[in-house]
């Protein structure tokens, strides 16, 4: 008899907050830990995660008792205002012990509408992150295999230029990518920030030119609620840019869906980059909450 071991690529992790750090007026980093993390494995980069958060007054996120293959339907059937808030985030960093077991992970949250007099009200994840405290409990759907399909940054062999654009919801992913680019990799990077105070010093060994595009107060995108004002400043900036010459460029663009589509069209049609060498990810869509976006037909 032959026995085959099958490893499930994604699983649920019960975690708690161990600390928070305010990175800027619109950014907070939350560090999570938990015994379950010993089974968390990821190669990083733009690793996507699903985070389940409690509503105010709950001490833990409400999810189905059985988190098997039918968890999605079970979660949807819980009453509104009871079922856990689910939001997609990117792994910013992880730390492991001497045996390679993950001990902590970081997730960066963009805060929308939590400041007094905000034009757009805060969504549930922004409210939670702005008040997160040591011991707060969450649930995470994440990878149990380091190289998994929720990592999308995959430049082809022979890539000689990496082009990156990210709005603030994708800056954590772009930052993790930059940190792991090999020394000498040429990269042209545009990152959006709602405020000048949200600009971060990013570490990279790559030969990277990083341009921050600041929209200014009152122009927050509202990724959680699907609202927001102002066209992306990236398109004009990239159209006006002189890209370094390259034979095999690769582009990774992520953020609001309509902006991502415009930028992809520009890179493919006007810049001549092979469409197969452009990874584009719509992290959110203006006018739709994440729940509504997930229910859209493919």
UniProtKB/TrEMBL annotation:
Protein name per its UniProtKB record: Siderophore-interacting protein
CDD domains per the UniProt record, alphabetical: siderophore_interacting (cd06193)
Recorded superkingdom: Bacteria
InterPro entries in alphabetical order: FAD-bd_FR_type (IPR017927), FNR_nucleotide-bd (IPR039261), Riboflavin_synthase-like_b-brl (IPR017938), SIP_FAD-bd (IPR013113), SIP_fam (IPR039374), SIP_rossman_dom (IPR007037)
SUPFAM superfamilies attached to this UniProt entry: Riboflavin synthase domain-like
Domain (FAD-binding FR-type) ranges: 10-156
Pfam families in UniProt: FAD_binding_9, SIP
GO MF assignments: oxidoreductase activity
